[in-house]
Amino acid sequence: MMSFERNDSKKIGLGLTGFGVFFSFLGIIFFFDKGLLAMGNILFISGVALTIGLKSSAQFFMKRSNFKGTISFGIGFFLVVIGWPIMGMILEAYGFVVLFSGFWPTLAIFLQKIPILGWLFQQQFVRSVCSL
């Protein structure tokens, strides 16, 4: 049960992850601004590392089944930093989907339990699209 405990580093990690997503969103809104995208990437990766721990995050990214996602996310991160934000974000998005594909069913169950929004995700046409 220790892994579900919220200590200060996990709280900071969740905050950094949230800011990383926010800065990435702003970078996309402002026509792929490479500074905001790079800042969002750095905050997101450091937030994930603080939230789940350095050892766990290294094990997650280095798993054999996650190599394709890790490599494409890393190359996309590098492309954003050197100034090719559109290509970098395409590669990062692909890597993100591949890396976190195991979490999509958990996310779908979570979204179905949200009071008002959950009703929409419980409808048959949404469930059929999500199961593809």
UniProtKB/TrEMBL annotation:
GO CC terms, sorted? cytosol; Golgi membrane
* Transmembrane spans: 12-32, 38-58, 70-87, 93-111
> GO biological process annotations for this chain's record?
endoplasmic reticulum to Golgi vesicle-mediated transport; retrograde transport, endosome to Golgi
Lineage of origin: Eukaryota, Viridiplantae, Streptophyta, Embryophyta, Tracheophyta
Tell me the keywords, alphabetical order: Golgi apparatus, Membrane, Transmembrane, Transmembrane helix
Key word Protein biosynthesis present: no
Q: Output this protein's name.
A: Vesicle transport GOT1-like
Q: Does the keyword Membrane apply?
A: yes
What's one Pfam family here?
A: Got1
Q: Where in the cell is it found?
A: Golgi apparatus membrane
* Membrane topology recorded in Swiss-Prot or TrEMBL: Multi-pass membrane protein
Organism this protein belongs to: Olea europaea subsp. europaea
Family of the protein in this entry = Belongs to the GOT1 family.
